[in-house]
Design goal:
The protein has 95 residues and is of the alpha+beta class. It has 3 helices and 5 strands. The chain has helices spanning 4-14, 35-42, 83-92; strands at residues 18-22, 27-32, 48-53, 60-66, 76-79. α1 (4-14) packs across α3 (83-92).
Length: 95
């Protein structure tokens, strides 16, 4: 079973969103469209925060807290409660 945060990342990138990753100390990845760069950064820490931005970087779509070592369906531990994030997560929770 694929971890839910990986589905979230794929869905956000498929929509053309930019993703930044906070590794607990700094924004290690900024406004990236590289799945590998984002994934590698998240998997190097115990808890990461994602900031998802619009393609033109004009506004923040939402935020998610990722705990990569949890059970696959629990890796997205918290997120912004808004429609765009619900859409991304709704897709993420479909197999």
């Amino acid at each position: 079973m694929q971890k839910e945060y990986l589905k979230l990342i794929k869905n956000a990138l498929a929509k053309g969103y930019l993703i930044s990753v906070h590794d607990g100390e700094c924004w290690e990845v900024k406004r990236s469209t590289s799945y590998k760069e984002i994934k590698d950064c998240i998997e190097s820490v115990e808890v990461a925060e994602l900031r998802i931005r619009s393609q033109d970087d004009s506004h923040i779509i939402g935020w998610a807290q990722i705990i990569p070592d949890l059970e696959p369906d629990e890796t997205v531990a918290d997120f912004t409660d808004n429609e765009p994030m619900h859409d991304l997560l709704e897709w993420a929770y479909k197999d």
